[in-house]
Specification:
This protein is of the alpha+beta class and about 190 residues long. It is built from eight helices and eight strands. The strands form two sheets. Strands 1, 2, 3, 4, 5 and 6 form a six-stranded mixed sheet that branches. The protein has a two-stranded antiparallel sheet with strand order 7-8. Strand 7 and strand 8 form a beta hairpin. Helix 2 crosses helix 5 (about 125-140), helix 2 runs parallel beside helix 6 and helix 5 (about 125-140) packs parallel to helix 7 (about 165-175). The longest helix has 15 residues, at about 5-20. The N and C termini lie far apart (about 45 Å).
Length: about 190
């Protein structure tokens, strides 16, 4: 395997072959809507139930499954981690949770062609990328999430986003102040 994009593509193919519903999230989804940046992992959200063993079998020995699923504290979900030591690269598969926004984001996912992995993939809507990245920025205190939000809004433009939907979730998640701060930092282009 030559790079993380190929690893992510193999996971997408495995989900498709196994009939597992998923979305590609994290930096890959913000790349799609914003400005690409280097990453050493790919984040997926999937409806796995008891299918992680089937996924591991389909991916093969190049993907090493951590035998212990873990609880991810920022999202409050379970996740399984596959390491791809030959590149090195990490695949995180978050289990779709009962969280209302997690459910809404999954229902609103879009099928797009992702040039990085050269596949049709399911990704969150641009609004759900903003909402999710805001949660990560506040809870995990990661500046790269704020940078991703700024880039996505700058590239997509204020007019193309459903601000009512975004404001609904940012009020509920108590992330509206950070959103307003980020929006104020984006220079207007006239």
């Amino acid at each position: 395997m030559k790079d993380g994009n190929e690893a992510a593509a193999r996971v997408v193919d495995a989900f498709k072959e196994l009939g597992i519903d998923y979305l590609l999230a994290g930096s890959y989804s913000s790349h799609y809507y914003g400005i690409p940046r280097a990453t050493r992992d790919a984040d997926f959200v999937a409806v796995l139930s008891d299918r992680i063993s089937a996924l591991a079998g389909k991916l093969g020995p190049a993907f090493e499954l951590d035998p212990q699923p873990s609880f991810e504290s920022v999202t409050g979900t379970m996740r399984d981690i596959f390491m791809v030591p030959s590149i090195p690269f990490k695949i995180e598969v978050f289990h779709l949770s009962d969280d209302p926004h997690d459910q809404s984001r999954f229902e609103r996912r879009l099928k797009v062609f992702d040039e990085l992995i050269d596949r049709d993939v399911f990704i969150p809507s641009v609004e759900d990328v903003v909402v999710t990245k805001l949660r990560w920025a506040v809870r995990a205190q990661r500046s790269k999430d704020s940078d991703d939000i700024r880039d996505v809004i700058a590239v997509q433009g204020n007019e193309s986003l459903d601000w009512g939907y975004i404001h609904q979730w940012t009020e509920e998640h108590e992330t509206r102040d950070l959103l307003d701060e980020i929006r104020a930092s984006i220079p207007s282009i006239d």
